[in-house]
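Issue 218. Parser rejects a valid record. Input:
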Amino acid sequence: MKLQALGIDLAKNVFHLVGLDSNGQVVIRKRCSRRQVLAFTANVQVQVIGMEACSGAHFLGRALREQGHEVRLMPAQYVKPYVQTNKSDYIDAEAIAEAVQRPRMRFVPIKTEEQLDLQALHRVRERWVMRRTAVVNQIRSLLLERGLTLAKGRRHLQQALPSIFEDAELKLSGMFRALLAQLKLELEQLSVRIEQMDTEIQREACDNEACQRLTAIPGVGPVTATALVGAIGNGSTFRKGRDLSAWMGIVPGEYSTGGRQKLLGISKRGQ
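Output the parser choked on:
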């Protein structure tokens, strides 16, 4: 069977597929489990396969490419305008099949295993940093209820905690001191984990040629370099540096009409 476009609506266990012919008519509506998808696509000739760039899309995209298919990933917000009437899994898959054929559609490059590894490092590190910040804020708020005011910042808290434990005139209860000790231990453990993650990121930056070129730029360190490489790879998606700046959201927003150009603040809509 030959298809012009195949749209795949991804899910955790059940995928919905809609195939269009050269006239744009729906000729296939199929519901597959995760194991059945690759078995079905192996026996289909299709011009292009489209999916939304969501969790699991890069893995499936690489698997479909190994079968010889042309696979394109699209941001979900760019597919939404092609959804007609009500929303269902088949309607979403049909919208994907329609959107993937548009010549002005913006596509997301399929990430390699190395890029996904770098992004995983940053996501885990970010969660630990957020958790450490939450622990610091909780300790400061608990001490504030006891009349102890500490300046903002983890360093001020770490410097003040030893003297708080040693000062008997504060009249802190034994239960509160034990609770404070547990929070201090959690804070130290999170700091150790983050330091280990920073060491791993430093090692990855030293081993990656693209990261080495980025760290040569003043102000760009291993964390920024590995995050950028993990997100865009070699940057071939962007025609020029201004396109990369727009993708990162470090350019002014624009709301122009009636021949008048109106520039807004930094959009920050990128990563």
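Fixed in the parser; the record now loads. The two ends are 40 Å apart (CA to CA).
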